[in-house]
Each structure stands twice: as C-alpha cells, then as structure tokens.
C-alpha cells in the first residue's frame, strides 16, 4: 500500500617550522589517516587528512563532546571554515545521504510543474529492500511531488523515476560523478543514484558536507529538506500524507532541534546510520555530518545535536582546522598557475598558539625523530654533493 513501505532513517600544504619545510613534509606523511583517499587527502587542508580529532581551541573554548562515530565534521556554512573533524576523508558507505548529490545534480533540470506519467520501466531498477514513497506505474506526478518523495520519504522509487526522466540510471550516475568532481569531492564514488548499498559506493564526512552546502544554495533544495509533511498522490485523485524521516526536524521520537533547516538522513544495514544536518542560530548556520556511530539507533541524532551545540558555543573561540573548498565551476578564472585554496600545493596560514586536541605525533620520541631527520636533510642539502528502514 502507498505510504506503508519502508523508508530511510535515515594539501598537502607546507607548514612553517624552525626546521624549515622538512619537518612539515615529514609530519604530513606521518599523520595521513589510514582511511583517507590519497587523491583527496589534501582537499580542504592537511589536518583533515590527519589521524585523530582535529580542533584548534582558543581561550574559553568548550571541549568537544565524546563521540562514537567512525567519522564526523562540523563546519560554518557561510565561511566554509571546518571547526573540528574526525576521519573527515574516511571513505564509508553513505546510504541515503548520497541523495544530496543526486539533488545537487538533477534538481535544476526540470520545472516544478512538469508532469510525468510513470511507467513500469521507470521503476524497473529499484533495488530490493529499498525505501519507497509509494509511486505507482500509470499514475501521473508532478516533478514537485517526486522531489517531495525523495526528500521527505527518501523514496528510491521517486529517485529512479527522476533518473529515468533525466536519461537513465547510467547517465545520472555519470552526471553525479561529474558534479562530485566539480565540488572537489574526491572521496566519493557513485554506483547508483539512490544511495542504496552497492559495491564500491562510498563517500566521506567531508564530501557529504560539501553536498549539503552546495544544495542549500538552491532555494528549492532548501525548501524540500525543511518540509515536514506533504500530501502525496495515491491514484484515482486520492492522496495520503507523508512525513519527513529527519527526526531532528519533525521531533518524532527525539526532541526537534532549534533552528534546524535540514538536510538528509540515511540508514542501511551495511552503512549504518548517517546524517548531515544544518541549523541556524543568531544568523549563523552550521553544518554537521556524522557517519556510522558504533551503536544505538538514536546515536546519529544525539551526536549531531552534541556537535551543533558545541559549534554554536565555540563561536569565536576556535580557529579553523580546514575549509570547505569552493566548487571548481565557481572559482574565478585566472591565468595564474597558483593552486586553488585547499588544492595540493596550496599554502596554509601560520597556526597561532592555541590548544590543539589532535595533531598527535605519537609522543616526544616521534617529534624528535622527525626533527632530527629534517636537520640531517638540511645539512646534507648544504653540501655540494646533492529491520530497520533501509535507504
């Protein structure tokens, strides 16, 4: 029956040092996160590819909450500053949070009032066990209604109808991958448009945050992810009510979060719970992504709330550990060969004296070893010798 099917719950950069560039290079190599994508480990700043919690706390800054997620990130939406992170570039299954990239790619392509009569072929490639909004072959839907099905119920049937309208799953996947490249989301590999468990389909907390930030620039995207309930066609002129599965938005089973504006949750048995959320307070919008808390059905929401609370409380008291990079298509045209901010080869600003939580080198012995190696290299260079709901 319509409405009763399962739904989603869903640079290398140089570092200043008294030893010159050698120590920075050695530290960069030593601190690369084992799960970071080599191709994108520099995107957004070297610390985002480093092991451990990354944060630069100033005077009076609150301590970060204790979290169990495999990866997480909190950033300022307007400035793009990454305020803290853990495993930012770690590649993990994204579940339905990948639908943010689908929307970034396809949403601008069709007018809201465009009508489409769904065929059986439109629904042919939906993975078994998918979340569904209840689309029926032979029924006509507006594009607006299909997007409500995507955002509110995480309906893979709505995704596949829109993908079919776009030109098919393969064309949609290729376009999503191209959009990810434009966003500099190098940790993401798209295998299908719906986010369901497919071999090799991965993303990262950093990339998902890029997708959310890009989407929120689009008024339609912003409106859909903030919609709590809607009436959806049931055929024969009838409708049924659908509710957004974002529980921090609706307050279903957990307190609604003050100022929340979206964006997307996801769950599969393989991916676990994943969530990217955005909230605004006092004119400031924060983005948080939490991937795969170790246990607890509510943990992905609880940890999101903890990071949002921390981010708002830390305003003006922490310095960025990285940045959300600008899409390639939005960067100013220049004949200069200088790399874009956050790209490999770009330089980072000097780090002020602050309390670092993270950037651990493994103890004083590791620091001494790195420093010694750098001094030796400098001396040598001085010589002329050269059951729950699934997405």
Rg value? 22 Å
| Biggest β-sheet strands, sense, barrel | 9 strands, antiparallel
What's the pLDDT, averaged over the residues?
82
Helix tally? Answer: 10
Q: What is the global morphology?
A: globular
Low-confidence stretches: 1-40, 337-355, 358-390
CATH class group of the domain at 68-328: Alpha Beta
> What would the CATH topology of the domain at 68-328 be?
Beta-lactamase
Q: How do the helices and strands follow one another from N- to C-terminus? A: HEEEHEEHHHHHEEHEEEHEEEH
The CATH architecture of the domain at 68-328 can be given as 3-Layer(aba) Sandwich
Which class do the helix and strand fractions yield?
Answer: alpha+beta
Helices and strands, with pairings:
Elements: H1 21-30, E1 54-57, E2 69-76, E3 81-86, H2 99-106, E4 115-117, E5 140-142, H3 143-153, H4 156-166, H5 169-182, H6 205-215, H7 219-225, E6 229-235, E7 238-243, H8 247-250, E8 260-268, E9 272-281, E10 284-293, H9 299-313, E11 318-319, E12 322-323, E13 355-356, H10 364-381
Helix pairs in contact: 1-10, 2-5, 2-6, 3-4
Signal peptide: 1-38
Transmembrane segments: 358-378
Protein name: Serine hydrolase
């Amino acid at each position: 029956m319509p409405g009763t099917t399962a739904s989603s719950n869903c640079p290398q950069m140089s570092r200043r040092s008294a030893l010159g560039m050698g120590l920075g290079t050695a530290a960069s190599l030593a601190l690369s996160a084992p799960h970071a994508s080599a191709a994108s480990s520099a995107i957004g700043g070297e610390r985002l590819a480093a092991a451990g919690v990354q944060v630069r706390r100033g005077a009076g800054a609150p301590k970060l909450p204790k979290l169990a997620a495999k990866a997480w990130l909190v950033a300022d939406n307007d400035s793009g500053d990454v305020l803290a992170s853990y495993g930012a570039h770690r590649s993990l299954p994204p579940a339905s949070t990948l639908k943010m990239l689908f929307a970034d790619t396809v949403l601008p392509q069709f007018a809201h009032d465009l009508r489409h009569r769904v065929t059986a072929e439109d629904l042919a490639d939906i993975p078994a066990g998918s979340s569904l909004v209840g689309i029926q072959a032979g029924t006509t839907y507006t594009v607006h209604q299909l997007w409500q099905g995507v955002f509110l119920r995480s309906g893979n049937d709505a995704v596949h109808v829109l993908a079919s309208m776009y030109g098919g799953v393969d064309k949609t996947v290729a376009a999503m991958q191209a959009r990810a490249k434009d966003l500099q989301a190098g940790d993401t590999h798209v295998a299908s448009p719906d986010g369901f468990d497919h071999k090799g389909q991965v993303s990262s907390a950093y990339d998902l945050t890029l997708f959310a930030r890009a989407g929120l620039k689009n008024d339609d995207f912003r409106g859909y992810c903030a919609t709590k309930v809607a009436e959806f066609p049931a055929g024969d002129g009838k409708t049924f009510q659908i509710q957004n599965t974002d529980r921090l938005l609706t307050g279903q089973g957990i307190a609604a979060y003050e100022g929340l504006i979206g964006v997307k949750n996801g769950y599969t048995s393989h991916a676990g719970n994943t969530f990217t959320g955005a909230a605004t307070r006092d004119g400031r919008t924060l983005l948080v992504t939490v991937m795969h808390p170790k246990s607890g059905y509510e943990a992905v929401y609880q940890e999101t709330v903890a990071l949002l609370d921390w981010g708002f409380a830390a305003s003006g008291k922490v310095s960025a550990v990285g940045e959300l990079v600008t899409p390639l298509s939005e960067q100013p045209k220049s004949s200069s060969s200088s790399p874009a901010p956050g790209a490999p080869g770009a330089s980072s600003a000097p780090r002020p004296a602050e309390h670092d939580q993270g950037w651990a080198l493994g103890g004083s012995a590791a620091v001494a070893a790195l420093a010694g190696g750098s001094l030796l290299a400098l001396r040598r260079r001085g010589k002329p010798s050269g059951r729950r709901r699934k997405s």
